[in-house]
Write a structure and sequence with these properties.
about 450 residues, elongated, Glucose Oxidase, domain 1, 2 domains, about 35% helix, single chain
Length: about 450
């Protein structure tokens, strides 16, 4: 009797297994590998805790190139190589200092220089402050009210935006172009509210540009923490003549040689078609950049590890590319495209992870309508893994320059609600990473690469 029961159960389970589609079976293998046999968390541990920050042109960036190349050489690629790229070198110098001077009271506040900023004079800058919320407001105030003052940009990211990257896009112009805009009206410096949705004491750095203004008009610019921005704004309301002091010693050096790290495995059927999966190896210098973008780097490497574990050989050529200099120039991505054009390569797909190591939710796609419909039709295979968001939108800064006759670009979309708590700040460290979330992201990337590889593009 027991024998018949066991036989019945075996036959039932066998029928259920073989009733699964091939894709469902492979997805199960992919996620099992990602969650039980991955290397990405240990790779990130080393990248974050043993190497640390990796700003372009720094010793940390150079050591990260060496480390990731060595690790990729263990993954069974046909070849692993470096692409030379000249990158900017900007050095922060001594830790910045700042305080609000309200009559005889000095209140220290946390700031950090923005990437590419010039230094203040040796003894710092002290000046009255004028708070603004837009470039239009600068224009309305004009030279008479701005000249000789520090412009304080205090437009917050919009808490009402469910998509936090929309909130970021709605505020980041202050950081990127604020110094150049204020300089035209005679400002002596700018302070920018950090790009952060929560109130805390971490100033968030990031790239800024002086645009086309002459060098003699460059003014120092720094980010101020959101708590301190609230305090400065409140103080200005009670005393419009309050002064602000800040000091920073950053400087821009000559460009230096760095590298993209590339691992390539030739396709078994269509080696002329190239699929790219990658993230950026550089990070800002305030922390080790575990979310931005150490997570994307190790998840991209893990795609190859997963394929090895499940013994999957891609039909199309697969490249894992770790780009250099996304944070302050995107020169790695531009160099990759330059070499691609010179070699007359045909890319059919590019996937970037650069939105943190949080729980994956879907993909942001740049492609024609036919390919968007095709990829969206795969939702039923992804939904058991809680991947449900397939939208059109920006894919990634490193793959932005990449062109081919027909190409699909995708960005991994993790849950973004916590991302800007850490983005470009001193708390973007390894302890902010959840191992399981990181591994789920790697599995999700491998799953999409597999589907593109199996089904091609329109």
């Amino acid at each position: 009797m027991k024998t018949n029961l066991f036989l019945a159960l075996f036959l039932f389970n066998s029928v259920a297994f073989f009733a699964q589609t091939k894709d469902e079976q492979v997805f199960k293998e992919i996620y099992n590998s990602a969650l039980t046999n991955s290397k990405c968390y240990s790779w990130l541990d080393h990248l974050s805790n043993d190497i640390g920050s990796r700003l372009s042109g720094s010793d940390g960036a150079a050591r990260a190139v060496e480390y990731t190349k060595k690790q990729m050489e263990t993954l069974g690629f046909d070849k692993v190589y470096l692409q030379e790229v000249m990158v900017p070198k900007w050095v922060r110098g001594e830790k910045e200092t700042a305080y609000i001077q309200d009559n005889k009271t000095k209140i220290k506040v946390p700031i950090c220089a923005l990437g590419g900023s010039i230094s203040t004079p040796k003894n710092g800058i002290t000046a009255e402050v004028i708070e603004v919320h837009s470039f239009d407001e600068l224009k309305t105030l004009g030279v008479d009210k701005i000249k000789g003052k520090i412009v304080f940009y205090n437009r917050p990211m919009n808490n009402a935006d469910i998509e936090t990257f929309d909130a970021y896009s709605g505020a980041v112009d202050q950081r990127y172009g604020g110094a150049a805009a204020a300089s035209k009206y005679g400002a002596v410096g700018t302070i920018v509210r950090s790009m952060n949705l929560r109130l805390d004491d971490f100033p968030h750095t990031g790239g800024q540009s002086y645009g086309d203004i002459p060098k003699e008009q460059f003014i120092p610019t720094a980010a101020i923490s959101t708590n301190a921005a609230e305090l400065l704004s409140k103080t200005l309301k009670s005393n419009p003549n309050v002064k602000f002091y800040f000091k920073q010693s950053c400087q821009k050096m000559d460009d230096v040689l760095s590298y993209n790290v590339v691992g390539e495995i030739k396709g078994t059927e269509h080696p002329e078609n190239i699929m790219v999966v990658g993230g950026h190896l550089d990070s800002w210098d305030l922390a080790d950049g575990s979310h931005d973008d150490g997570a994307g780097v190790v998840q991209s490497m893990e795609v190859m590890n997963i394929f090895n574990n499940i013994k999957y050989k891609p039909k199309n050529t697969l490249r894992v590319v770790l780009f250099m200099n996304e944070e302050n120039g995107t020169r790695g991505g531009k160099k990759y495209e330059e070499l691609s054009l010179a070699n007359k390569e045909n890319h059919i797909f590019a996937l970037e992870s650069d939105s943190g190591g949080f729980t994956p939710r879907g993909f942001s796609l740049e492609c024609n309508d036919a390919n968007f419909a095709k990829i969206s039709s795969w939702k039923n295979v992804f939904e058991p893994y809680l991947i449900h968001s397939f939208v059109k939108g920006h894919s990634g800064s490193d793959i932005e320059a990449l062109t081919s006759k027909t190409i699909v670009k995708a960005g991994l979309k993790p849950d973004s609600q916590r991302y800007f708590d850490y983005h470009h700040a001193a708390n973007d460290t390894f302890d902010a990473i959840d191992k399981r979330e990181l591994e789920l992201g790697a599995g999700t990337m491998a799953a999409l690469v597999y589907m593109i590889d199996q089904n091609g593009i329109q």
